[in-house]
Amino acid sequence: MTGTTLSDRAILRISGEEAKAFLQGLLTRDVLTLTPGQPRWTGLLTPQGKALFDFILWADGDDVLIDCEAAQADLLAKRLTIYRLRRKVAIVREEGLAVHWSLDALEQPLDPRLPALGHRWIAPTTPGDATPAFRAHRLRLGVFEGAEELGQDQTLWLETNAEELRGVDYDKGCYVGQENTARMHYRNKVSRRLVAVPIAQADEKRQRAALPDIGLSIELRRVETLDPATLPAWLATAIASQAAE
């Protein structure tokens, strides 16, 4: 049984009267305008604009649910707690809920990064595990996530293709890492990109993750060295558009 549950994901609930305002000052996406059924992919960055954690935000009444990497959930909660200070905010792991995925669940929201990723939603856990199928599908589309693939404190947020995957708002105000991220955007200075190459062509100096089970190496390569024919169409289009500006 394949099922729809993504077993490698976990849910954190951020609640309290200051929950959204608290997250608004930390994350790359606008949290104040988050609405039910319209999830948003976002990042928590270093002050230099490098990715620490990436996750998807969901509105649940006045609360915010964070759909995050299960292996990093406790570290993420700890990092958020450091920023909380005296704010009236609670950060707890929501054990009764799970993240689900399917290409065919047309009644559910689309993945906020790329519609081709399929449908994603939050509900109680069901039998079966869709994690291997989703991972293979996601990597075929050239979409990366998590500490292993993005690297923690290694890769600038825009180098992860965050702009093309709807992972940043430029008009939301300040957040951690905002200054360098905005500078790169307005100066059109995204000179390197995360891409997947056949593992036989791996360059260890540029490698963020080796995935021998699927024969890929995820690497941070300079844009001018990339062959558009080897890139997913959405990324090739974005790079061509940047070059034309």
Could you characterize what this model shows?
This protein has one domain (9-244): Probable tRNA modification gtpase trme, domain 1 (Gyrase A, domain 2), CATH 3.30.1360.120. The chain is built from six helices and ten strands. It has helices at 19-24, 73-84, 131-140, 146-150, 178-186, 233-244, and strands at residues 9-15, 40-45, 51-60, 63-69, 90-93, 98-102, 119-123, 192-198, 207-211, 216-222. The N and C termini lie far apart (49 Å). 38% of the residues are buried. The model has no long low-confidence stretch (mean pLDDT 95). This is Folate-binding protein YgfZ.
The CATH fourth-level homologous superfamily? Probable tRNA modification gtpase trme, domain 1
CATH class: Alpha Beta
- Give the number of helices: 6
Q: Provide mean pLDDT, rounded.
A: 95
Looking at the chains present, what oligomeric state does this protein adopt?
single chain
Organism: Sphingobium psychrophilum
Keywords: Transit peptide
Protein name: Folate-binding protein YgfZ
InterPro entries: TrmE/GcvT-like, YgfZ/GCV_T_CS, YgfZ/GcvT
